[in-house]
Amino acid sequence: MIVTQALDVVLLLLLVMTAVAIARVKDLFATVMLSGIYGLLSASFFVLMDAVDVAFTEASVGAGIFPLLMLAVLSFVGRYEADSKRRVALPVFLLTLVSGAVLLLATTQMPAFGGEDTPAQQHVAVRYIEDSPQEIGIPNMVTSVLASYRGFDTLGEVLVIFTATIGVVVVLLGVVQPGKARSLPADEDMADHKVLRIVGKMLIPLILLFALYVQFHGDYGPGGGFQAGVIFATGIILYAMLFGLSNAQRVLPMPLLRGLTALGVMIYGSVGVAGLLAGGNFLDYSVLASDPVSGQHLGILLIELGVGVTVASSMVLIFYAFSLTTSSDGSVER
Amino acid sequence: MDFFNYWVVIALMMTGLYIVMAQQNLVKKLLGLNIFQTAIFILYISVAKVLGGTAPIYTESATLYSNPLPHVLILTAIVVGIATMALALALVVRIHGAYGSIEDDEIRDRSKQ
Amino acid sequence: MINHLPILQVVLPLLAAPACLIFVRARSIWLFTCLACLLTFGISVALFIHVSDVGPLSYEVGGWPAPWGIEYTIDSLSSYVLLLVSAIAAVVILAANSSLGPELPERQQPAFYVLFLLCLTGLLGIVATGDVFNVFVFLEVSSLATYALIALGRQRQALWAAYQYLIVGTIGASFFLVGIGFLYALTGTLNMSDLSERLVEVEQQQLLAVAFGFVVVGIALKMALLPLHGWLPNAYAFAPSIATTFLAASATKVSLYLFIRLYYGVFGAETVDALLPVSIVFLLLGIVAVLAASLVAFRQSDVKRMLAFSSIAQIGYMAVGIGVGSTLGLQASLLHLFNHAFIKGALFLAVASVVYRTGSSQIDAFRGLGYRMPWTMAGLVLASLSLIGVPLTAGFVSKWFLVLAAIESGLWVVVLIVLVGSFISLFYLWKIVELAYSKSDSEANTNEAPPLMLIALWVLVIANIYFGIDTRLTVGASASAAATLIEGAPW
Amino acid sequence: MLEQGNIVSHICLLVGAFLILSGGLGILRFPDFFTRMHAAGITETLAATLIIVGLMIIAGWGIVQLKLFFILLFVMITSPTASHALAKSALHGGLQPKVKNVVDGDSP
User: What is the pTM of this model?
Assistant: First the structure.
């Protein structure tokens, strides 16, 4: 327990240092790298706090997708901040300082960290911990809560991704149904990176295989549709980076991805409606099979599939959109 | 020691908020927002931790588990966060194309024209 | 079947949004969206009737009982707001196809409809749910859709407005998340009714105050209460006109609903006011908003912007109603929430018609339109009268109740403010009307807005007059909702 | 406690940790980009290998050991590739290695 607490202090202090560095460094490229480190540090912290599923997600998002998108943006907007006006905004600084102090005082009333008898541990959570292995029949309680008890939140989450994807595509490309693939000049640049291409060819199948493992192993260990979707998308994005966007689009054209993004939401929603038609409530999986536990199994499998499909196709689609947009495409005054 | 995690949460929140409000660069503001959101994640996950407990995956040997509910909430929040970031970055790219700048004050000047 | 309506209310537009992508042509997607919105409206009507005849409905999503699963609760307040939002959506979407024509290239229109449905889903979800974290999720669905909708505007300022709103909106939602995080740490639950029961036993007063503070500030950002309104004028001015119409009539209203729901229904107004001076702050900010925003509106040369500042002023009236603190005050707020949606919907739709014909929303573009677009301008005049609060219009009813509430509580200042605010709005609206009916140089050949836009506009205008004359529905529903919230009395 | 395997694994972990530390020092102290990359790339491949081997010994025969083995394989492939890509793009970007012995720690 001492080790846990010592690590806790070290990791959190490192996080604060990284955050302050992000605030102070002017080179945007460096700050993006720092925010990748920040993501990795927080993921490590989440492992320490027993939140393995969260850590998995944070590692793939905070240290993976987010810096990747940031780098894509920096290639448009340039690397350095304008530094003519270097002023510390004193009022803002004081405001944050004062509100921080007030909050510090208030947090001393928080239930003590790590206690077993805090309200958060005592009330709703008890059922998830004690009954979910029997009620749902899968060992990973996070998956049980995510997919079944609070399955509607997760449907909302998938909807958020869908919304963002539609938004990104229409903002960057101006269309949801784009025409033919454009070939990028950058495609040829990668041709002399033989080593990268060969290693990539070795790794991509493994990455995709690992994504499937994470997808279907989420009931038993950390993982699930979201993490699997991100990993799958990473494989495709790696392919697109190494072998050119036009090749990637031949495998996964944009209209297909767009359809898949919507399809994932539809799969999720249809499982809910199926529960309704089978005589239960919306998203009630117990009525999907003859006995409740196998019904839960089936329901969770299907909705995780929906999540995976939407997430994977959205991430690839967002990557395409950032790669295909040209910053001065004359569509300023659309 | 009981409240150290929460103090760090507040320090991170305020750092993030400061970056969002005080920095002029649009990309930097988003990095600040990211710090702020991660601070919230740390808050929730700290609330969920039970000292001496294990990850909430049922095993024969364990009896004490950390609370799975905040984990679920934060999984959702992380996804919401990255979705927001993606949209924000798309807007930044377009703003750069339209204004030729990603500095707050310059854009404000040019908006008025 | 009636039992499943609470969830279908949200799931129908939710599933309609991705299903839109099946269609290819913008026109068929529009027809499909219209159908979805009409069905959603039908469900909300059925829910409203059921709730007022039989009583509140509760729905356990996934079949899990309340504090463990997510609960949907439809009581008199939520059915009232659901009815409002889905009615506005159904009317506004009728006009969308015509209005978007000149404002958005056809290849971008499918995305508009998908985002419109997603925004509607989010707003309905916030209103229908009985779980605070579920509120956050749907808040983000509607917010993300809104940012993208605003970014679809023609001018480059639309992008900037969308970015600014994104930053502010995300901070608002994050504050809300922090607040419910603290509440969860103190009570161990996320379910609203469970939360309200367990909050009574919480002893950590300072932390409770901080949690309430985060939640209130977060929601106030989303509803553009005066010092936090910065995002609103640009967002309304540069979004596509039809998106502005929908957002102005529904989005801030839903944020206000959320505030009322949590402040009265979950936290308890007295509990909060013992810790934080929320009602006094709302009263003061509301008064300042009514005066300052109205004066700023007077100085605008862009009509969309003028109406945006007018919206901030109207949110001020609603805040004043809450600040008064009595049942009657809350009822006035709820009435104004409802009526203002129809007023602003009609006004912005009239402006959308003008933008359709003239391509501009500058006030100079209105010169002589009274002769060229007689029906549109007649609608605009009637809606303006309603905004000012002339008797026999909806706007009068809500202001009348606000004045009654103020007199009841002895707050004569508020009576004065309502009158002064109405006078200022008379002046800035008169600027438009005067120009519209002044003779212009060009020939006065009529060039009316497309029929569907006119129909939508006149539906809203007639609603304004109807709810000004027959007040049974609005007054009855708002009275029962206010009574339920404050006194816990059966509706 | 002090079985043979345990000692070996502890040695592996300690040496690995030391190498990571020295690699970090190298990044800070070496004069130019390529030497810094050398410090990071070389030590980290070995350090990661040692740490994973140490963990494999502790884990004992089973599924965890297999997973660690796969991670090891991944690290052995990706880490040198990453170094290669970095060096190549640095050269491509026009960065030349410093040849003279300059004791200036900062200029890249």
Answer: 0.93
Q: How far is B105 from chain A (nearest CA, A)?
A: 10
Chain A residue numbers with beta carbons less than 8 Å from the beta carbon of D77 are 199, 202-203
Q: Which of B82, C245, C9 is nearest to A68 (CA)?
A: B82
Q: Give the DSSP letter string of B71-101.
A: HHHHHHHHHHHHHHHHHHHHHHHHHHHHHS-
Which residue in chain D has the smallest CA separation from A202?
Answer: D77
- Where do the domains of chain A lie? 1-80, 134-328
Phi, psi values for residue C129, rounded to 5°: -75, 155
Best mutation site among A27, A52, A195, A241 for testing chain D: the one with the most D CBs within 10 Å? A195
ipTM of the predicted structure? 0.93
Map chain A to HEC letters.
CHHHHHHHHHHHHHHHHHHHHHHHCCEHHHHHHHHHHHHHHHHHHHHHCCCHHHHHHHHHHHHHHHHHHHHHHHHHHCCECCCCCCCCCHHHHHHHHHHHHHHHHHHCCCCCCCCCCCHHHHCCHHHHHHHHHHHCCCCEHHHHHHHHHCHHHHHHHHHHHHHHHHHHHHHHHCCCCCCCCCCCCHHHHHHHCHHHHHHHHHHHHHHHHHHHHHHHHCCCCCCCHHHHHHHHHHHHHHHHHHHCHHHHHHHCCHHHHHHHHHHHHHHHHHHHHHHHHCCCCCCCCHHHCCCHHHHHHHHHHHHHHHHHHHHHHHHHHHHHHHHHCCCCCCCCCC
A203 contacts D84? CB cut-off 8 A: no
Tell whether A247 lies on the interface with C, counting CB pairs under 8 A: no
Question: How is residue B60 written in tokens?
Answer: 């024969």
> What tokens were used for C385?
């009268």
Q: Which of A134-143, C210-219, C377-386 has the lowest mean pLDDT?
A: A134-143
In three-state secondary structure terms, C170 is helix
3-state secondary structure of C362: strand
Residues 6+ apart with CB under 8 A from A77: A327, B27, B92, B93, B96, B102
Cβ distance D77 to A203 less than 8 Å, yes or no, reads yes
pLDDT tens, B20-56? 988 888 999 999 999 999 999 999 999 999 888 888 9
Residues 6 or more apart whose Cβ sits within 8 Å of residue A149: A128, A132, C62, C64, C68, C69
| Ordered structural domains, chain B, with CATH | 4-112 (1.10.287.3510)
- Please report, for chain C, the start and end positions of each structural domain, with discontinuous segments joined by +: 278-491
pLDDT at res. A332: 34
What is the average pLDDT score of chain C? 91
Structure tokens at A124: 């709703």
Convert the pLDDT of each residue in A64-99 to its tens digit. 899 999 988 888 888 777 765 556 678 888 888 888
Q: Please write the tens of the pLDDT for every residue from C183-203.
A: 999 999 999 989 988 988 888
Q: Do C144 and B87 touch (CB under 8 A)?
A: yes
Whole-number pLDDT of residue C212: 93
CA distance A241 to B102: 26
- Residue ranges covered by each domain of chain D: 4-92
Judged by CB atoms closer than 8 Å, whether chains meet at A166 and C11 is answered as no
Q: Which chains touch A (3 or more CB pairs under 8 A)?
A: B, C, D
Q: How far is A128 from chain D (nearest CA, A)?
A: 27
Of C24, C64, C110, the CB nearest to A149: C64
